[in-house]
Design a protein that fits this description.
Blueprint: E1 5-9, H1 24-27, E2 31-32, E3 41-47, E4 50-55, E5 59-63, E6 69-71, E7 80-86, E8 89-94, E9 99-102, E10 109-110, E11 120-126, E12 129-134, E13 139-142, E14 149-150, E15 159-165, E16 168-173, E17 178-181, E18 188-190, E19 198-204, E20 207-212, E21 216-220, E22 227-230, E23 237-243, E24 246-251, E25 255-259, E26 266-269, E27 276-282, E28 285-290, E29 295-298, E30 305-307, E31 313-319, E32 322-327, E33 332-336, E34 347-348, E35 359-364, E36 369-373, E37 378-381, E38 388-390, E39 398-404, E40 407-412, E41 417-420, E42 427-429, E43 437-443, E44 446-451, E45 456-459, E46 466-468, E47 476-482, E48 485-490, E49 495-498, E50 505-507, E51 515-520, E52 525-529, E53 534-537, E54 544-545, E55 554-560, E56 563-568, E57 573-575, E58 586-592, E59 598-603, E60 609-615, E61 622-628, E62 634-638, E63 646-653
Parallel strand pairs: 1-63
Antiparallel strand pairs: 2-57, 3-4, 4-5, 5-6, 7-8, 8-9, 9-10, 11-12, 12-13, 13-14, 15-16, 16-17, 17-18, 19-20, 20-21, 21-22, 23-24, 24-25, 25-26, 27-28, 28-29, 29-30, 31-32, 32-33, 33-34, 35-36, 36-37, 37-38, 39-40, 40-41, 41-42, 43-44, 44-45, 45-46, 47-48, 48-49, 49-50, 51-52, 52-53, 53-54, ...
């Protein structure tokens, strides 16, 4: 029976969105979701709504939540070792007598250090005074962080840490050295009962705890009488803090242990491979920092989310309610919509860390997500959490993947193209080129592969490919269908546009750097690239330069859930924030085909997950399909429409 009436109903709930305005990349606030550095982070402190981190190369970082970080302070090449907060200011110390102070963690002032210029290893605040300890028995005190006095420690051993509690300071260091003082000026040597170096000490629950080399752990009720305990690990332990009723210790190879009393310890894995040097508690969470920009965050000390910021992130996608980022060493990170909108917590779903896998691209299909990488590796997952390795039948590098027309298409080295309808069984196709293909996109019923030397190939089905003349002689790295045209970006600031995929026009970008990723929210375009480049355009023709605030390579970008997310080197994840309200998905036009089937057009931001629903009575709605828009508008054909005298449609985002 033919359809006699078709009605399109506008979308009900919008979980996607758009950001209007001039110069999208300029009006948005880009926030880093990892530390954004590969330098070693050695100290961390907290005051209200502000974590402050210090490290090698004079690194100074700040964060309100332990997730989004910004770089602050001076870059004078010296090494920071420790930071604390007290008397209304931060004090940071480091090599060669380095002392800096800041009231807010942003503006830093150099304070006069110890005259001998010895390395300063740790600083704390207690009993109205700052106390610094360092090499060769150095102890300095100050009431305000500016005027410093030297105290006689009675030892020449290197001192690694200091804590205040129970009305006295406790200092520990090399070869089990332990000192106590009620005022930070007059010191007494105590017996630790052993010769292992002590790297960290903290006070909580009327108890001192100390940890150090080879898993050394000690506890004391008063800082004078110490008892050796078992930490449960043989790793060196470097960081120690107390919060939420428990001690948390961090150390080599990412080891973490927790204790309620400072005596009985349980080892909890952080998931971090590198050393964690320091940990603190604030804003109802523990934050640990360490090797090559590593940051780990936990609300309970046992379950940690971490960022291997030394890993290059090469690709990002969104769909089915999830963002997924992939990178080298098998890195897979996910963020589920709704878990946190303004400060997303990326979870590590990496099952292949350390296996040598380098993942280069990732894309969502209707019911699964596919990631591709080195040695012909293809991974498939129904939920972006549990991944399975798929036999691709090839052993060369695969760079990009896209989904469209119920088909996955993968491209790679020397013109490689593979296709699959289910993400598991793959067929090698002939591309007709030996140029390496860096990316593949789908839009307006057409697949497009992009590669070296300006290579552009198009295909209606992923199987039969036609070479197009781009007019560009440089590598093309990414593309998108938006605003009724294809937009392609590449090396040396190259931007090309085409309404049909055949005839191409070069557009001035105003940039000379390599542009490596491009995405659209349905209205506006954003492209990213080397040296932190971000460009924005409302039409693909005229482009405006924005700023990421970073001098690193941004390698991929996607739009979803009302925000752009871009990823790149040093594990960097940036997210744009827009104040503009989202628009609902829209159904229409809907037209009846000769067969009697209904062709339904859905218009919504690219990257939005939505359901097409139908009803005959406006009471009982049936979901016809769930999809993630990889192009907008999106067309769906309702073949069973022939079975109804009248049918009504709507789009519901989810």
């Amino acid at each position: 029976m033919k359809v006699s009436m078709i009605l399109a109903v506008s979308g009900l709930v919008c979980l996607g969105g758009r950001a209007d305005g001039q110069g999208a990349g300029l009006t948005w606030n880009w926030q880093s979701r990892v530390s954004g550095t590969d330098r070693n982070l050695r100290g961390i402190a907290y005051r209200t709504n502000n974590f402050e981190v210090v490290g090698s190369g004079s690194t100074l970082l700040a964060s309100a939540d332990g997730s989004a970080w910004t770089t602050t302070g001076l870059q004078n090449g010296l090494e920071f070792n420790s930071v604390t907060f007290g008397a209304g200011q931060f004090v940071a110390v480091g090599s060669a007598g380095l002392i800096q102070t800041s009231p807010d963690g942003s503006a830093w002032t150099t304070a006069p250090g110890f005259g001998a210029g010895g390395d300063l290893n740790f600083v704390t605040y207690g009993n109205g005074a700052f106390v610094i300890v360092g090499a060769g028995g150095i102890i300095l005190t100050s009431p305000d962080g500016s005027a410093w006095s030297s105290s006689t420690s009675g030892t020449t051993s290197d001192l690694w840490c200091v804590a205040y509690g129970g009305h006295q300071f406790v200092v520990a260091g090399e070869a089990g050295t332990l000192l106590t003082s009620p005022d930070g000026v007059n010191w007494t040597i105590q017996d630790s009962g052993g010769g292992a170096s002590i790297y960290a000490v903290a006070y909580g629950t009327a108890q001192f705890a100390a940890v150090g080399a080879g898993g050394t752990a000690l506890s004391s009720p008063d800082g004078v009488n110490w008892t050796r305990t078992t930490s449960g690990t043989g790793q060196n332990l470097y960081g120690l803090t107390y919060g939420s009723g428990q001690f948390v210790v961090t150390g080599a190879s990412g080891v973490i242990a927790i204790s309620r009393d400072g005596a009985n310890w349980s080892v909890a894995g952080s998931g971090q491979q590198g050393d964690l040097y320091s940990v603190t508690y604030g804003n109802n969470e523990f934050v640990a920092v360490g090797d090559q920009g590593a940051v780990a965050v936990s609300t309970n000390g046992s379950d940690w989310r971490h960022f291997n910021s030394y890993n290059v992130l090469t690709g990002v996608t969104s769909g089915n309610g999830v963002f997924v980022a992939v990178g080298v060493t098998g890195t897979i990170l996910t963020w589920t919509f709704g878990s946190s909108e303004t400060s997303p917590n990326w979870q590590d779903a990496s099952q292949y860390l350390g296996t040598g896998i380098e993942l280069s691209g990732v894309a969502f299909g209707t019911a699964k997500v596919v990631a591709v990488g080195s040695s012909g590796r293809i991974l498939s997952s129904p939920d972006a959490i549990e991944w399975a390795t798929v036999n691709s039948g090839v052993n060369y590098q695969l760079f990009g993947v896209a989904y469209g027309a119920k088909e996955f298409v993968v491209v790679g080295l020397n013109g490689a193209i593979l296709t699959s309808s289910d993400g598991f069984a793959w067929t090698v196709q002939s591309s007709g080129t030996i140029s390496s293909l860096w990316a593949v996109v789908h839009g307006a019923d057409l697949f497009m592969a992009l590669g070296d030397g300006g290579t552009i190939l198009t295909s209606p089905d992923g199987t039969n490919w036609t070479s197009r003349v781009s007019g560009a002689g440089v590598a093309l790295y990414s593309g998108v269908w938006a605003n009724n045209q294809y937009i392609v970006v590449g090396a040396a600031g190259t931007i090309l546009t085409s309404t049909d995929g055949t005839n191409w026009i070069s557009r001035p970008s105003g940039a000379s750097v390599n542009l490596r990723g491009i995405a659209s929210n349905g209205d506006e375009l954003v492209t990213v690239g080397d040296h932190g480049a971000i460009l924005a355009s409302s039409d693909g023709i005229y482009w405006t330069a924005g700023s990421s605030g970073l001098d690193i390579t941004l390698r991929s970008i996607v739009f979803g859930r009302g925000t752009f997310v871009t990823v790149g080197d040093l594990g960097t994840i940036l997210q744009s924030a827009s104040a503009d309200p989202p628009l609902p998905p829209v159904v229409g036009p809907v037209k009846m085909l000769a067969s009697g089937a209904a062709e339904i057009t859905i218009t919504a931001p690219i990257g939005q997950a939505a359901a097409v629903q139908a009803t005959t009575d406006f009471v009982n709605w049936v979901t016809l399909t769930n999809m993630t828009l990889t192009t907008s508008p999106w067309r769906y054909i309702d073949y069973p429409a022939t079975n109804f005298p009248a049918r009504f449609y709507r789009a519901a985002a989810h």
